[in-house]
């Protein structure tokens, strides 16, 4: 039977041949686990995703949440799916045993979660947002806040949201206007409007816990004056029972291009003057708290983009195998039977490109999850810090690269299905529409590029960058043991070497104060850096594939050959093409910067 | 007031500074015309498009045609729009005065039509399809067929469709199964099923004339056995009145990603055994007739893709000018006012890229229309033939390049609007969804690439290619008069020179029988060839802009500077990047060809 969410063989390759998931069980935190418990969790995730999430993916798209009497209504299939997810424990997969979790490595919890993201991006958002909100309270909340709000989230009774964006400010959080005034009882009264709040209302849980960014009366201007508040939909009494409705009004729903099953809401806080909120952590530290949670959230967004790409790839692959049409150019005889379209070289190109994008990004996302585990469970503090520095550096890539290239994969999946792909009778056009959100939310593509070039590269004296360069060089060294990989290794080495020198130059310009000019082409830099990273991950996969081939297991041969071919595609078709972007960066090309408003 | 469909200044630049529309009035056929009549036609098109087409563009998307009692129902706004279009004479804009037309050059009729395509792609399809069907009958029908079917189409009473695709065959027309049996009265009885027939049913006209591809009983296999038939929805009596309903059944409607306002139908011909059709032209020549009309149709499809890109570009430009958000990287002081987002270099990059794609493709489409006029109205027969050869060669580019790059433009427009762009409250996401059809219909991207590399290049001994190379060289020569254009000219010359040698090599391989291997990377070839052609058109525009600047008219200065900057973007950012594709083509890279089904 063909797989529709992801390739189990490829997941096993990632976990056990590339990323050494079993090695994690040597660490104290994961000592109770082994490959069997990992595989059992994955099997459960897959079966719930297939049984409860995938079947209503299209229905959720066709039946958007409706706004009725101030509330958002969903199709009935969402709740049983989310309930099954909760019951199986996936909300707390990475949480400790004592906290009611499975104490799985993040690598494994992401691998499990990926199945839901592939099956139904929209329904999966509700637990995803809840996890993010819960992690914030867990990290920065008081014991009392944890008792009152976090525990019911862990128990699956309360859901959560992240309420950042405001209509006039968009991505510019420095300019938010939502205010929080201290009240006599130590809580706060909030007033303001938020938009694009995913999961901002729904009937799936007893309560919704909004994590809201707002400014205190004495807040300094800009991002240094933003505080974080818990604002529940219903107040919670001391005994944990629900109190009265808080002054949080669902002002309306947004109607989106895709991802339609997730409510995207406009919320008004404090229209009636009594919106109660609770300060999380210290005043004015809200944005730094958000940023500390962002690595994990952005891995999640990146993996979401990967999995929509993956689902589209697998669907178009199956279609190409089954659909007979046309003949090969050198055997046009119309009396012969048509071939399946996978026989056409251009269809194979579109499949191989998808495979390279999707499996490259899948590896990258899981690599980042593994790195996240290193930041929390490596024994040595210096090593944990190193892992953190590298993860910080890679986060903009982990978020943005799949959002761009797995979206391209979706476009190719539509093209392979042709006219059918353009109809809503097939799933691929929805994958594209759903995925189109990913380059926008959780920091747009442009913001990721500024984060990388303007902040992450130079962080900690460039420690993350140096480590990355060293790791790439080590992979290159190991690749030298396989002469068949020379043609794959060399373009990567050429790119990385030149990228290093371009990077040094750009950082020098930044240090000397040429900020706007240097950041002007940050999008080009993001593209090249991302291709270098994914190229490295593909070379790593290629080495593992060579090692796999050497074991000479007949059933695995095709799998490894496919890996090598996808690596070849990426490293010889895509990686060398980045040289031109480097030329533009080297020349400090000012074509876009110099363009004037009046000239358009 | 800002323009929403296209820039009138840019259209005037194309018509009167680049493409010498006034020169056409020296030709006998267009002697009655002058710049005033041209501008009057354009003004009328613009005002009808703005008044009748644009206002229901979103409504048509949200209210797809419904299938009721075997008929397709549309929203009420479509008919008045189409009626206004017909009344103003745009259906017959290029037709002769005697035939009831405006006898405009195709260049001008396309320029007029472009306004409707930008305003409402879906509603515009109905007259577009009718024009295509009418042209087929005009070129290949008998006098009696013209009297009975063409005249009512010209009069706007009958509409038309093109009925080619069948469920099992898709793009592989060689494999169609619809059959046509001769009847005693000289007509035929058809039996078969067609899908994706745009405009296959609607209540806009008294009758619908389907141009159907089918096979006669004695048909040779493959594309050489396809004949063309007129199959009306209602039979037409000798006096021109409508007879009984023909045996053409609307089997259902397809529900598409975009372009939703146009009915996409499944039609069953002859379910009840009495579907009457009339052979057009000679038996077995149907496909060659279709191909002869294809240049015009594909210019139309290409221009449709351009105009969706254009509408998105103008919308996102206006948005970027009006939306304040964030601050520039070197002046982050939060107490200063936010800047409009057009001030951010990365937003300017996305706008400049759109401008380069959209205005480059707009020029290309109009250039092709001008060439079409040359094929029919140049005095010298050899010159007409030359124009035809060049147009044949360029047609795959004119169709596919805008379908790919103006679609990318739409993606950038969404990105500029961010979260808002992703909602259906703004028009840009619909432009993307509408435009996504264009790389699929009228010959997919892959088919265009095979048409170019496998057929068009070598046609007529390569006459079209030689002429194109000569024209590009002439533009390069003229560019030398402007030293400021050296940096733009050189990358184009480098690309074209290497492309020539790669082309010779590939044609040699084809001639020596390595067909499948040589065509395997046809998509790369299409990309490079397209960029060379559009690069040439941009260099041409840049020359005209330099000439315009030299005239030193204050009001025009910004316009020409913008042209030069967009040319600079395309020729220095995009054109040199094609060198890597040439490297792959030169190496006869077999990465995709060698990929095996079992390896995926």
Automatic annotation (TrEMBL), chains A, B:
This is Butyryl-CoA dehydrogenase. It comes from the Bacteria. Residues 285-450 form the Acyl-CoA dehydrogenase/oxidase C-terminal domain. Keywords: FAD, Flavoprotein, Oxidoreductase. Residues 43-156 form the Acyl-CoA dehydrogenase/oxidase N-terminal domain. Its cofactor is FAD. Residues 471-596 form the Acetyl-CoA dehydrogenase-like C-terminal domain. Residues 162-269 form the Acyl-CoA oxidase/dehydrogenase middle domain. Belongs to the acyl-CoA dehydrogenase family. Gene3D superfamilies: Acyl-CoA dehydrogenase/oxidase, N-terminal domain (1.10.540.10), Butyryl-CoA Dehydrogenase, subunit A, domain 2 (2.40.110.10), Butyryl-CoA Dehydrogenase, subunit A, domain 3 (1.20.140.10). GO terms for molecular function: flavin adenine dinucleotide binding; oxidoreductase activity, acting on the CH-CH group of donors. It holds the Pfam family Acyl-CoA_dh_N. InterPro entries: Acyl-CoA_dh-like_C_dom, Acyl-CoA_Oxase/DH_mid-dom, Acyl-CoA_Oxase/DH_mid-dom_sf, AcylCo_DH-like_C, AcylCo_DH/oxidase_C, AcylCoA_DH/ox_N, AcylCoA_DH/ox_N_sf, AcylCoA_DH/oxidase_NM_dom_sf.
């Amino acid at each position: 039977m063909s797989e529709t969410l992801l390739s189990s063989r490829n997941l096993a390759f990632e976990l056990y041949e590339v990323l050494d998931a079993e090695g994690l069980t040597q660490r104290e935190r994961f000592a109770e686990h082994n490959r069997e418990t990992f595989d059992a969790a994955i099997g459960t995730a897959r079966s719930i995703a297939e049984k409860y999430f995938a079947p209503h993916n299209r229905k959720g798209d066709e039946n958007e949440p409706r706004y009725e009497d101030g509330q958002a209504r969903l199709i009935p299939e969402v709740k049983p799916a989310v309930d099954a997810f909760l019951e199986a424990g996936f909300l707390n997969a990475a949480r400790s045993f004592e906290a009611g979790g499975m104490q799985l490595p993040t690598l494994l919890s992401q691998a499990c979660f990926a199945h839901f993201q592939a099956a139904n991006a929209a329904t999966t958002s509700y637990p995803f947002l809840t996890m993010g909100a819960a992690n914030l309270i867990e990290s920065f909340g008081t014991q009392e806040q944890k008792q009152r709000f976090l525990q019911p989230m862990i128990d699956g009774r309360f859901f959560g949201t992240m309420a950042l964006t405001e209509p006039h400010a968009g991505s510019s959080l420095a300019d938010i206007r939502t205010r929080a005034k201290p009240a006599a009882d130590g809580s706060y009264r909030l007033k303001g409007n938020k938009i694009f709040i995913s999961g901002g209302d729904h009937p799936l849980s007893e309560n919704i816990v909004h994590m809201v960014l707002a400014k205190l009366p004495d807040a300094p201007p800009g991002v240094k004056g933003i505080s974080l508040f818990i604002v529940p939909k219903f107040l919670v009494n001391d005994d944990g029972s629900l109190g009265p409705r808080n002054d949080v009004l669902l002002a309306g729903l947004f109607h989106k291009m895709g991802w339609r099953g997730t409510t995207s809401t406009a919320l008004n806080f404090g229209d009636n003057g009594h919106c109660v909120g609770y300060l999380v952590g210290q005043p004015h530290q809200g944005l730094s708290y958000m940023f500390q949670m962002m690595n994990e959230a952005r891995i999640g967004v990146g993996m979401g983009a990967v999995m929509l790409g993956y689902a589209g790839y697998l669907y178009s692959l199956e279609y190409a195998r089954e659909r007979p049409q046309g003949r090969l150019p050198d055997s046009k005889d119309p009396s012969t039977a048509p071939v399946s379209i996978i026989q056409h070289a251009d269809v194979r190109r579109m499949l191989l490109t998808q495979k390279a994008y999707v499996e490259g990004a899948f590896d990258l996302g899981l690599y980042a999850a593994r790195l996240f585990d290193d930041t929390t469970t490596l024994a040595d503090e210096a090593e944990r810090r190193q892992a953190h520095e590298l993860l910080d550096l890679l986060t903009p890539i982990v978020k943005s690269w799949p959002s761009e290239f797995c979206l391209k994969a979706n476009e190719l999946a539509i093209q392979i299905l042709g006219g059918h792909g353009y109809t809503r009778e097939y799933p691929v056009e929805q994958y594209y529409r759903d995925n189109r959100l990913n380059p926008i939310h959780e920091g747009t593509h442009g913001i990721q590029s500024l984060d990388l070039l303007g902040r992450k590269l130079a962080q900690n004296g460039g420690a993350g960058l140096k480590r990355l360069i060293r790791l790439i060089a080590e992979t290159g060294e190991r690749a030298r043991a396989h002469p068949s990989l020379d043609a794959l290794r060399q373009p990567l080495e050429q790119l990385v070497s030149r990228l290093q020198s371009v990077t040094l130059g750009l950082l020098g310009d930044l240090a000397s104060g040429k900020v706007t000019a240097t950041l002007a082409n940050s999008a080009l830099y993001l593209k090249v850096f991302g291709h270098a990273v994914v190229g490295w991950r593909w070379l790593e996969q290629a080495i593992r594939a060579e090692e796999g081939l050497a074991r000479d297991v007949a059933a695995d041969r095709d799998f490894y050959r496919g890996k090598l071919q996808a690596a070849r595609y990426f490293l010889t078709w895509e990686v060398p093409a980045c040289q031109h972007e480097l030329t533009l960066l080297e020349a400090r090309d000012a074509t876009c910067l110099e363009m004037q408003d009046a000239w358009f």
